TrEMBL record:
Species the sequence originates in: Nonomuraea maheshkhaliensis
Any Pfam family: MR_MLE_C
Mandelate racemase/muconate lactonizing enzyme C-terminal domain span: 149-244
UniProt cross-references to Gene3D superfamilies, sorted A to Z: Enolase-like C-terminal domain (3.20.20.120), Enolase-like, N-terminal domain (3.30.390.10)
Name the UniProt record assigns to this protein: glucarate dehydratase
Lineage: Bacteria, Bacillati, Actinomycetota, Actinomycetes, Streptosporangiales
Enzyme class, UniProt record, top EC level: lyase
SMART domains in UniProt: MR_MLE
Compositional bias (Basic and acidic residues): 398-408
Length: 408
């Protein structure tokens, strides 16, 4: 089997509402580049990549000379062809490699008639549990704003009723820490017995990170995720706060993982199939974590159904996945795969069992959302449409005002 072509299509799939985060916002849609890698036997493997609200079509098109006539089974050779570590100092292609790896694994699975999780060692679970992913957000048609503790609790209750979530993750760093602490405590009070997570995307100062961490020690926390920036900052907080610390920002490769093993700053590593360069590196990293008794979880970087499938196959094969996975998925209004959005049941999604990734493109949906991208274009992920001229610093002191902030 040889690769003969690669096609990339950028789509914009609507979210329920614009989602705010510590560095900016998702502006009411996810912009994702869908990749189709065609083999000489007629099979097509699927990949997907984000890009901070921008298209990556041109970057994938430029990879065709690297990929033409490449055997999809040769995954280690693929890694060095696309993301040689020395060459990547000048042209970092880790996320491009991830999308191509997804497609190659999809091709291999289809060719052999087996699901990707069988290629990765076989599944140890049939369903992957997920946390609700809670955002402060602007209002949009049919979906109210989320800014206050009461609004957040009402939204969480609706998600719990619809999808069965029993773990709740609050994406913070938008409003002052005291306001977000009030929101977090409101969740704990409203959903006794459920587990909680807080993630301000590393914008708190060390002093604020310590203060917030100590204030939630008595709650049912899974972990405190990236309260401050960097392994050294995490290490300072970890030494003084009795809540496990997690990261998806400063342990995203094996050098950083080794540093964290030698001088631990994070207790839980959130593995992202895009950030790490594919599903297989995440499986390798999970093995290291198992050896050194680090927890692992599956991270979400804003997925449609193709990347969600990679997260499900990863979650299926990790014996040491003791935490619910993250997903933005329930924030979407639609998807580009056949059958539309995958369904949650009791807070979990079933692992695809079909050959390869187990998902196929819905051509009509792809065309519709490619046209929406052409109409609306991209957006800057690191800007907030409701705060013109604002940008985040690390640590941040210019938080949004929960009393005066208005929608764009």
């Amino acid at each position: 089997m040889k690769i003969v072509d690669i096609r990339a299509t950028t789509v914009a799939v609507p979210l329920e509402a614009p989602l705010r985060h510590s560095n900016g916002a998702h502006w009411g849609r996810f912009v994702r580049t869908i990749v189709e890698v065609e083999a000489d036997n007629g099979l097509i493997g699927l990949g997907e990549m984000g890009g901070g609200g921008e298209s990556a079509e041109a970057a994938f098109g430029a990879l065709l000379p690297y990929l033409k006539d490449h055997d999809p089974f040769q995954l280690e050779a693929l890694r060095f062809k696309i993301a040689n570590p020395t060459a990547s100092l000048y042209n970092n292609r880790t996320q491009l490699l991830a999308a191509i790896e997804f497609a190659c694994l999809d091709l291999i699975g289809q060719h052999l008639g087996v699901p990707v999780h069988d290629l990765l060692g076989g599944r140890v679970r049939d369903r992957v549990p997920f946390a609700s992913y809670l955002f402060f957000r602007y209002a949009a048609e049919g979906h109210p704003e989320i800014r206050t503790p009461d609004q957040l609790v009402e939204h969480t209750a609706a998600l719990k009723a619809a999808h069965g979530f029993t773990v709740h993750k609050l994406k913070g760093g938008v409003f002052p820490p005291d306001h977000e602490l009030e929101c977090y405590r409101a969740l704990a009070e409203a959903f006794p017995g459920d587990r909680l997570r807080y993630d301000p995307n590393a914008v708190l100062s060390v002093a604020e990170g310590l203060r917030f961490g100590k204030a939630i020690e008595h709650l049912d926390n899974d972990y405190l995720e990236d309260p401050v920036w960097g392994l050294e900052g995490l290490r300072i907080v970890r030494e003084q706060v009795r809540v496990p610390l997690a990261t998806n920002t400063v342990v995203v490769n094996f050098e950083q993982l080794a540093s964290n093993v030698l001088r631990r700053g994070a207790d839980v590593i959130l593995l992202d199939t895009t950030f790490w360069g594919g599903i297989r590196p995440c499986v390798k990293a999970a093995g290291v974590c198992e050896t050194f008794q680090l927890g692992v979880a599956v991270h979400s970087s804003g997925e449609l159904g193709i990347q969600l499938a990679t997260m499900l196959h990863l979650g299926a094969v990790l014996p040491n996945l003791t935490y619910s996975a993250d997903a933005h998925y329930h924030q979407l209004r639609d998807d580009v795969i056949e059958g539309g959005k995958m369904a949650y049941s009791e807070g979990a999604i079933s692992v695809p069992s079909g050959p390869g990734l187990g998902v196929r493109l819905d051509k009509e949906r792809v065309a519709r959302y490619a046209e929406l991208y052409r109409e609306q274009g991209g957006y800057p992920y690191d800007r907030d449409p409701g705060r013109p001229g604002w940008y985040a610093t690390v640590p941040n002191e210019r938080f949004a005002d929960p009393e005066r902030d208005i929608a764009p």
